[in-house]
From TrEMBL:
This is Pyruvate/2-oxoglutarate dehydrogenase complex dihydrolipoamide dehydrogenase (E3) component. It comes from the Bacteria. The lineage of its organism: Bacteria, Pseudomonadati, Pseudomonadota, Alphaproteobacteria, Acetobacterales. PROSITE patterns: PYRIDINE_REDOX_1 (PS00076). One of its GO terms (molecular function) is NAD(P)H dehydrogenase (quinone) activity. NAD(+) binds at G175, G176, G177, P178, I179, G180, I181, E182, E198, G262. Keywords: Disulfide bond, FAD, Flavoprotein, Membrane, NAD, NADP, Nucleotide-binding, Oxidoreductase, Pyruvate, Redox-active center, Transmembrane, Transmembrane helix. Binds 1 FAD per subunit.
Length: 475
């Protein structure tokens, strides 16, 4: 039986990060992956979706060029060339996640399914491996609902969507979360009819309603149709396509159906009871140090981890954050404690919707919202110069003028996240943003103007005016 310092199940973002760090420390590391290296993010998620979005954004920009005095003529989409662009993006990044690269680091890579046979043993293919420490990083998969009539019908998930050889005539998207919304805009801009069906009262239900309202308007302008507040109760064939039956008695038919109802951890087949690892449908039960609460040899990282008190987060950048926690907890035995207080999340449509830290509603629920500051993007000089109308910056501050949350609806809003994340993580007051010198003209100046809304009224109080008048009399 082969013995390893660290065994890692899953070669997605989480597993690759831990494997690279472990190998750098000179540990004997084995990485087990049953599918493609790079996992969901590279092959079926972040990379292909953003590549398709880029194509959609380019098509929209060409159609809209006339308002700048640029004449392009009718815009057509070459679907095969678009797919080649998507595949090219994956191929360009793939070497970073390849078997050869990790073998070069000193990591042994086994391409096989893995399951536990004991608290310190794994079976991978025909091999049995014993480990000192293990990281479960098997990721997550798209939720497939138990919808009457769905079984046997053709449907798409993020794992099959990018394989379509021709554009869908009418794409039905069941679920109005980030994945559904991104793919709705991408396909609409590429010339497809798109309808989003969301059971909740609003798409993007976790996000700030003010920003979501503006985003919905932008998506509708692209041609996306919405059915909100109505659940799907069944599915049935419709010619060569599929139809959804809705709770209000209506029926909607489309050529294709994309399921975008969230993610579920890939727990099946791991045989966690054999390792004495507690888990639920949310994922592997771990503490804030990402260590299993029932087997101290095992950690969990990425989408499959369910940290006590804060729950799972299905983001690639969370996997990188987890790797840092595991370095502290597993490698150095330091009292690491995971926090999502400054965690950013971004929906990469146009305009992008970025949330860093708490939304206004979340802050109010926690009693941490003393004031909300807003600045419309339409009053930003760079936005005016580029003809950008939709957008807003909202800053949520506590009673000590510290930033606890930021909502940004703007082009490339995700690129602003670092500023707000740093402020929240370090407990900086709003004055740090108000005093920040930013290049002119730039879109992030809108955030500085929002911060200025906090100090402006306070500086113009009668007492301050009297003080300034007195100081001006001094020689």
């Amino acid at each position: 039986m082969d013995r390893y310092d660290i065994a890692i199940i899953g070669a997605g973002a989480a597993g690759l990060s831990v494997a690279a760090i472990g190998a750098a420390f000179g540990l004997k590391v084995v990485l087990i992956e049953r599918g493609a290296m790079g996992g969901d993010c590279l092959n079926y998620g972040c990379v292909p979706s953003k590549a398709m979005l880029a194509a959609g954004h380019a098509a929209a920009a060409a159609r809209d060029a006339g308002r700048f005095g640029v004449r392009t003529g009718p815009v057509t989409v070459d679907w095969a060339a678009m797919r080649a662009h998507v595949r090219g993006a994956i191929a360009a990044i793939a070497p970073n996640d390849s078997i050869a690269r990790f073998q070069g680091m000193g990591v042994e890579v086994i391409q096989a399914a893995a399951h536990f046979t004991a608290p310190d043993e794994i079976e991978a293919g025909t091999r049995r491996l014993r480990f000192r420490r293990c990281v479960i990083a098997a990721g997550s998969a798209a939720v497939v609902p138990d919808l009457p009539g769905l079984s046997g019908l053709p449907f798409l998930t993020n794992e099959t969507l990018f394989e379509l050889e021709s554009p869908p005539e009418h794409l039905l998207i069941l679920g109005g979360g980030p994945i559904g919304i991104e793919m709705a805009q991408a396909h609409a801009r590429l010339g497809c009819a798109v309808t989003v069906i969301e059971a909740a009262e609003s798409i993007m239900g976790r996000e700030d309603p003010e920003a979501v309202a503006a985003l919905r308007t932008a998506l509708a302008r692209d041609g996306v149709a919405f059915i909100e507040g109505v659940a799907a109760t069944g599915a049935e064939p419709d010619g060569e396509g599929v139809a959804l039956l809705l709770a209000d008695g209506s029926r909607i038919a489309g050529s294709h159906l994309l399921l975008a109802l969230g993610r579920a951890p890939r727990l099946a087949g791991l045989d966690l009871p054999a390792a004495g690892v507690e888990a639920s449908k949310r994922g592997v039960a771990v503490g804030r140090d990402l260590r299993s609460r029932s087997n101290r040899r095992i950690w969990a990282s990425g989408d499959i981890a369910d940290p006590a008190g804060i729950g799972p987060r299905a983001f690639t950048h969370v996997a990188s954050q987890h790797a840092g926690i595991i370095v502290q907890s597993m490698f150095f035995r330091l009292p690491a404690r995971l926090s999502y207080a400054a965690l950013p999340r971004v929906t990469y449509c146009d305009p992008e919707l970025a949330q860093i830290g708490l939304t206004e509603a979340e802050a109010r629920a926690e009693g941490r919202c003393a004031e909300v500051l807003r600045w419309p993007l339409g009053e930003n000089d760079r936005a005016v110069a580029e003809g950008i109308e939709a957008g807003i910056v909202k800053l949520v501050v506590d009673a000590r003028a510290r930033l606890v949350g930021a909502t940004v609806l703007a082009p490339r809003a995700g690129d602003w996240a670092g500023i707000f994340g740093l402020m929240i993580a370090r407990g900086h007051k709003l004055s740090a943003l108000a005093q920040l010198v930013l290049p002119y003209p730039s879109l992030p100046e809108a955030a500085k103007r929002a911060a200025g809304e906090y100090y402006g009224p306070r500086l113009l109080r009668p007492a301050i005016k009297r003080l300034v008048a007195w100081l001006m009399r001094l020689p």
